[in-house]
């Protein structure tokens, strides 16, 4: 989640269109379903209609349980458990209580460090402790993580190398080029987000990251709101794929398939054998 902590989620409206028919799924490798609030059902119908395999990241145990409950009725939703750096202090003394959730989750996220939006340096020791606990458990249980790096890219790189975890998914990277190169060399995947086609930095990220290390994300309804004042729904991922395909000079259908394959390979999810309806 890279939206400002003070962002207010405005009420959003969306009119569903007739479904598209196709064999390849779109990928939303980082969103926050609980933030849709009263518009959740609309978001879920879009996920179903557009066939968007969705990794629902959590901020804490409560939001994980929310996404887990949603996933029981919506099979394209994969709940991920994590403690966001903004929630680190509140969870500092209950970390071991979360071990059952870590073990059962398909992915560990959103976790990480944030020295950009969180300017209070007194919070940083708690962020470190929670992040390193999560990395330790990722190593122990062989989990893939979904990591927030804002303003702490160098520190995140050092930590993931120290714990020798599986190459993680790096969420909405916007840091230095030299650290990006090292994260690429480590094998990380990178989610391209809703600022693609708007932010020059997003275009540069798309150009620089190899095809086999690219994923797509929407980061929930508030992120596009922060970028351009419009409420973001899951089908924004289609615009992101188009932008990536244009920059990479690849057909959109082929780009969609590459991203889908990257996601399957990273998480070993079993949706490829699903029956097309």
From TrEMBL:
Keywords: Hydrolase, Metal-binding. InterPro entries: DNase_TatD-rel_CS, Metal_Hydrolase, TatD-like. It comes from the Bacteria. Gene3D superfamilies: Metal-dependent hydrolases (3.20.20.140). A divalent metal cation 1 binds at residues 30, 32, 110, 219. Pfam families: TatD_DNase. The keyword Magnesium does not apply. A divalent metal cation 2 binds at residues 148, 171. One of its GO terms (molecular function) is hydrolase activity, acting on ester bonds. This is TatD DNase family protein.
